[in-house]
Amino acid sequence: MQGTLEAFLTTGILAFILTFMRIGTAVMIMPGLGDSFVPERIRLHMALGISFVLFPFTMPFIPVPVPESFALVLMIVSEFLVGLLMGTVARIFMTALDTAGMVVSMQSGLSNAQVFNPSLAAQGSLIGAFLSMSGVLLLLITNLHHLLIAGMLESYNFFPLGKIPDTGSMAEIISKAVAASFNLGVKLSAPFIVVTLLLYVGMGVLARLMPQVQVFLLALPVQIMLALVTMIFVLSTLLHYWVNQFQGDMVAFLHMAGG
To answer: Does pLDDT of 201 surpass 70?
Structure first.
């Protein structure tokens, strides 16, 4: 009985440590739970709580007997790398909104209005910061953070414990995530690109018909007004499309990693 208890304590503590390394690293940088405006202590407590809840499910993946010191260190490092990969990919998919906001700001003449984007902890466009904060809100309202947590648990099937991920595969996953995020950002800003293009065509025709009119002085206020009106009409659809694409991209990432 005593030996069984000691074995359970040893395996359980090791499972919790390894689970915390993977899930805790991902939670620290994943969107929603790991944003910069969430205090580090809160993020740490959430990572500890999620790891404590999930470590019984990861115990079947723990090697028996407990590996030696060097192998254990390699296992901890590999868990850190896997968690970093999971959180980074989720964060990259989140930046599609900031990309869309930057394109919209450029098309609306507000690109010089730079504000602090708390979601990225860096300076960004005004509309990008608004879309990023709205995306975080939708991420939590629609319970997509549950998908991220379930994906971290599912990752044990295609990122085995103790096996350091292949750097080439990780680079390929990151590059595909960046390409998909940029592509989504351009798609989200497509209505504004079309409206601005039509405005520029109209202003060009006006400049040819009435050369004495100061077209550039007239274009900027009209450009800003059209962008705001377009935002009113397409904002709900834009965010709804992003939520669906975010979910689909995360599921596709899990399938790609599993394959």
So the answer is: yes
**C-alpha span between 222 and 217 (Å, rounded):** 9
Best-predicted range by mean pLDDT (61-70, 111-120, 179-188): 179-188
Backbone angles phi, psi at 118, to 5 degrees: -65, -25
pLDDT in tens, 98-148: 888 888 888 887 767 676 666 666 677 788 888 888 888 888 888 888 888
Q: How many whole angstroms from its chain centre is CA 91?
A: 2
Assigned token pair, 46: 């959430």
Which structure tokens are listed for 44? Answer: 């740490």
39 phi and psi, to 5 degrees? -60, 150
pLDDT at residue number 9: 59
One-character DSSP codes across the chain: -HHHHHHHHHHHHHHHHHHHHHHHHHHHHSTTTS-TTS-HHHHHHHHHHHHHHHHHHHGGGS-SS---HHHHHHHHHHHHHHHHHHHHHHHHHHTHHHHHHHHHHHHHT-TT-EEEETTTTEEEEHHHHHHHHHHHHHHHHTTHHHHHHHHHHHHHHHS-TT-PPPHHHHHHHHHHHHHHHHHHHHHHTHHHHHHHHHHHHHHHHHHHH-TTS-HHHHHHHHHHHHHHHHHHHHHHHHHHHHHHHHHHHHHHHHHHHH-
Q: By the 8 A CB rule, do 26 and 86 touch?
A: yes
Average of per-residue pLDDT across 203-214: 76
Under 8 Å CB-to-CB from 181, ≥6 apart: which residues?
92, 93, 95, 96, 99, 249
Amino acid making up residue 126: L
pTM: 0.81
